[in-house]
Amino acid sequence: MHLVLRVLCFSLLIPGCLSSTGEITIGCAQWRTSAGSPDICCESCHPGNRLVTPCGPDPKKLCVPCRNETYTTDTTSFSCRRCTQCVGGALTLKKACTRSRDTECGCKAGLRCGDGHCSFCVQECGKGQEPLPAARSCRNCPVGTFSDQIHEKCKLWRTSCPHPHEHIVALGDAVSDSKCGITNNSIPQVPTLPTKRGSEDGTGLVWAITASCGVFIILIILFLVIIINNKNKPEKTTHNEPNLIVPTPPTDEPRSLMEVSFHHPQQEQGSSSETLHSQDSETKLLPV
Q: Pick from 90, 33, 35, 97: which is nearest to 62 by CA?
């Protein structure tokens, strides 16, 4: 029994010394004893140690550290796992592997880890886009959806507002949801102040004066158009007046007398003797 107590004290002193030097602690961290048995059974190894045998007299020999390039996060595991290698053009090393932690990889700018272990990289989707896991790329949010976060799936626009007196006043876009607000129909009627009322009356008066001026200008334009059309119409032709025969004044010339005598109109009525008589009288007047 004394031997067991000495071993236990020695096992407790060794981890403290190793931890002060920065090295990993070796052996079992928690164990239990059994009545009537000198052996102890390990319940949990120190981080970075794997279990060799569950029970034994020496807790230091129950667990051993993982070898280089291996690790374990299970303090009751009998084996260690191989460290992940950040290989590939897109992967970068963030933290090196230790006996108690696997390698932590990252991705270059514009890319992000495709899974929780960052075993591969995918294109980082911006706002207004969503990732396509199968293609490891991005696509724009379809119409009716949006994405306001980096590398998130697109969400549907809202179709209703949270408050009963609000309505959708603007549809969303690829990076924002539809907006809610109070429409004019839902605004309660507020009594109008006298000053505001007077301003409204003044506005109505201005509109009335403007409309009257517009009607007056239109009437003037119509009047001018009518006058111009009347001026452009062709004037009516006047009736030809009958030609008047101007009597020729008597002269002493024989030719003129003869012309007058020959152009004297005959009477429509009368006997032939009267006509002959008048011709004889006219003949006598002519000089020999």
A: 33
- Residue 163 domain flag: no
pTM more than 0.90: no
pLDDT in tens, 238-287: 444 445 454 555 545 444 444 444 444 444 444 444 443 444 444 444 44
Q: How far apart, in whole angstroms, are the C-alpha atoms of residue 113 and residue 106? A: 7
The answer to whether position 208 is within a domain reads: no
Look up the CATH number of the domain holding residue 57: 2.10.50
Domain presence at residue 97: no
Reported as a pLDDT band with limits 50, 70 and 90, residue 228 is confident
Of 70, 65, 39, give the one whose Cα is nearest residue 54: 39
Q: What is the pLDDT of residues 229-252, one digit of tens each?
A: 887 765 554 444 445 454 555 545
Task: Give the tokens for residue 98.
Answer: 């230790």
